[in-house]
Amino acid sequence: MNLRRKTALVTGSTSGIGLGIAMALAESGCNLILNGFGETSAIERLRLQIEEEHKVRVDYFDADLSKPGECRELIVRAQIAAGELDILVNNAGIQYVAPVEQFPQAQWDAVLAVNLSSAFHLIAAALPAMRAQKFGRIINISSVHGLVGSIHKSAYVAAKHGLVGLTKVVALETAGQGITCNAICPGWVLTPLVQRQIEAKAESEGVDLETASKEILDEKQPSGIFTTSAQIGALAVFLCSQSADNLTGACLPVDGGWLAR
Ligand code: NAD
């Protein structure tokens, strides 16, 4: 894949899947705008490392995507820095786990804001320029939880289903205009977000991390293995390529068979 002279904004790319996608895009020659939380010096080291390794331009902007104004501003900053924004990957996400009647309202609002509303604000702000340049790739990182439910994840499942719906509407509104919008729906990928769930399970059940990790996989993911962030990155690169010009409105599971059951 050759994505030279393209620029991608990957939200939540200081960690996990977002970082895997950013790395894969950079490997294909794509310039990057990183975003996400983290320690300033560690982010700067990461930025310089990707620039040096892949000979691409890498910027970092520190928007808090739970805030609509910062989402809109992030697109403007990205467009000013890059000239053109060709690819938008809505990846930033958070998780909170509790039974529905005990789910704190503040956590519900936060999960919806970061996992769903930020994608709406970023897409709305990025689309006019994509339409003008007759090219755009929008990739929303949903989840298997965009297609099925699991207990104690009401906000997350609602947000990820919402993101699948948003993906379809944006695909329809941009069809035939050189713009595609798709969702990737991962099952378990071993990232800090999932590591925290494994640690919580190990603690609540009094088992070691290896046992908790195996139980999490056995319960849902028939392959018994975690998908890697690099594998999600490779799919994102494909969705940005010319081969995927006519692939839009799709929700693509990468889930070791989770949804086949
Ligand atoms: P992670 O915790 O490793 O990374 C999340 C990223 O989002 C980080 O860079 C973090 O700084 C950023 N972020 C969080 N809140 C933010 C905010 N308010 N503003 C800006 N950035 C913010 O998690 P991950 O597992 O890599 O998850 C990435 C995406 O993939 C999420 O949308 C998640 O729901 C989705 N996903 C993950 C899995 C999995 O198994 N890990 C499965 C399905 C879907």
Quick tags:
alpha/beta, seven-stranded parallel β-sheet, Rossmann fold, binds nicotinamide-adenine-dinucleotide, 261 residues
Verbal overview:
The chain is of the alpha/beta class. It has eight helices and seven strands. Helix 5 (154-174) links the parallel strand 5 and strand 6 (179-186). Helix 1 (16-27) crosses helix 8, helix 3 (68-82) packs parallel to helix 4 (105-133) and helix 6 (192-205) crosses helix 7 (209-220). The longest helix has 29 residues, at 105-133. The chain is globular, with a radius of gyration of 18 Å. Bound molecules: nicotinamide-adenine-dinucleotide. Nicotinamide-adenine-dinucleotide binds at residues 11-12, 14-18, 35-37, 64-66, 91-94, 114-115, 141, 143, 186, 188-189, 191-194.
Short structural summary:
The protein is of the alpha/beta class and 261 residues long.
What's the architecture of the largest domain in CATH terms? 3-Layer(aba) Sandwich
How many DSSP-defined strands?
7
| Overall geometric form | globular
Strand order of the largest sheet: 3-2-1-4-5-6-7
Portion of residues in helices?
40-55%
